[in-house]
Design brief:
The chain is of the alpha+beta class. It has 5 helices and 8 strands. It folds into 2 domains: about 1-20 and about 70-170, Protein of unknown function (DUF3299) (OB fold (Dihydrolipoamide Acetyltransferase, E2P)); about 20-65, no CATH class. Strand 2 (about 80-90) and strand 3 (about 100-105) form a beta hairpin. InterPro entries: DUF3299.
Length: about 170
């Protein structure tokens, strides 16, 4: 058991905000006034409505750009990391039970509802061994080598990809 813990220590823990360039993060932390004026639970509170409102509002181009940003933090390219998140299955192995390709996203429901998070908040993942996902509600820790590679498909665009070494159920540490 000690060797497993040691191996996990070789991965840098990364939070989702670590993957966002400072200017994009600043734009998200300072959204246009129209976003802040939305009443919780209203139709306008839905993510799609917020993005549409932001895109329609003149003069807030920095926020609009951040919503679709593929800008990455180049220093992460090739690093062994661990990152928490939720899995959006994309492809199953030959047995049709083991997920081999998926998106990792920062919150439950991302990519299932339109629109998805910004590309620099989506990680495309490949896990050759595959794994069974019992529930979309369960978060996981992914361990692997991250790349600053854009991957696009019908579901979303990811600005990062990761070759997964291991997947563990999420626990706070």
């Amino acid at each position: 058991m000690a060797s497993t813990a040691f191996a996990q220590d070789n991965y840098q823990t990364v939070e989702w905000t670590d993957l966002i360039p400072k200017d994009d993060l600043e734009a998200f932390l300072n959204p246009p006034d129209s976003i802040n004026e939305i009443e919780d639970g209203s139709d306008a509170d839905k993510i799609a409505s917020q993005i549409k409102a932001a895109l329609d509002e003149p003069g807030d181009s920095r926020y609009q750009q951040a919503l679709v940003s593929t800008k990455v933090i180049a220093e992460f390219d090739g690093k062994a990391i661990r990152i928490p998140g939720f899995i959006v299955p994309l492809e199953f192995g030959v047995d049709r039970h083991h997920i081999t390709k998926f998106f990792l996203v920062p919150y439950f429901g991302a990519c299932i509802h339109v629109p998805p998070p910004p590309p620099n908040q989506i990680v495309y993942a490949e896990f050759k061994k595959g794994f069974k996902l019992s529930s979309l509600y369960d978060p996981f820790w992914l361990y692997g080598t991250i790349k600053t590679t854009i991957v696009e498909n019908d579901t979303a665009t990811a600005a990062y990809s990761i070759e997964v070494d291991s997947i563990k159920p999420y626990t706070e540490e």
